[in-house]
Amino acid sequence: MIKVYIMIALIGVLGAGAYGAKYYYDTTQNTITQLRNNNAKLEVANETNKATIKKMGENAKRLNDLTTALNEDLRKAEVYGDELRDTLSKHNLTHLANKKPGLIEKRMQNATDELWDNLESITDSNTPTE
Amino acid sequence: MNFGITLSLLLIATLLLSSCSSIRPEPEIVTVTEIIERTIPTVAHPKPVRMNDVKVYVVSPTENFEQFMVEFKKKNGTDSYIAISVKDYENLSKNFAELSRYIKQQKQIIIYYEKAVINEPSTISVGEN
What we know:
The complex is a heterodimer.
Chain A: H1 2-76, H2 79-90, H3 93-99, H4 101-122
Helix pairs in contact in A: 3-4
Chain B: H1 2-17, H2 65-76, H3 86-116
């Protein structure tokens, strides 16, 4: 009689073991599938990140180029004032006006007309900046 | 009997070695890619300035003062005139040069920002999901 009980218990244990093994196999397979899917998603995310970083680098370079060009343009805008100050410091305009008022008047008139034209030009949106 | 104990030990060992991974399911990774493009519209520039002509007289007390008076009266009647010294005229020129520089630089900065905010077509490309 004891042998029968032992047999039943053994069958029970073996059955539980088999069920456990099957359960373990199924869950492991599910985990493997889940990990494979996760890996694929992470690879795509990694590619997206790489592409984003590349794009950010290109944008940074573009902005850097624009800033360099802007600094150059800002420096060029100083030229007219520098030249004017240089010209005025070289010549004694008071003396020249006293001696040759007609000549200086003509030059001043031309310079004034040129300045108005220049102001009209630089405030025109169709005119490219220097 | 020994077989039963061995089998039990094997089952327990399997459970311990797998660190109860069968109990905790592997979390699913969710990736969300969101591309946000800035949309800053550029506005039209203001209309350019229109300058009026200004006549400049250079008058020397010893050279052409009388001639100036005759010409001025002929052109403007008995109007008064505003005199400015040569030095002040130079300063006026320098002031206008400064204004000109400022306008140019402001315009260049505006153009810089306009170029900077232009949305370029997105070049981000990723593999198949």
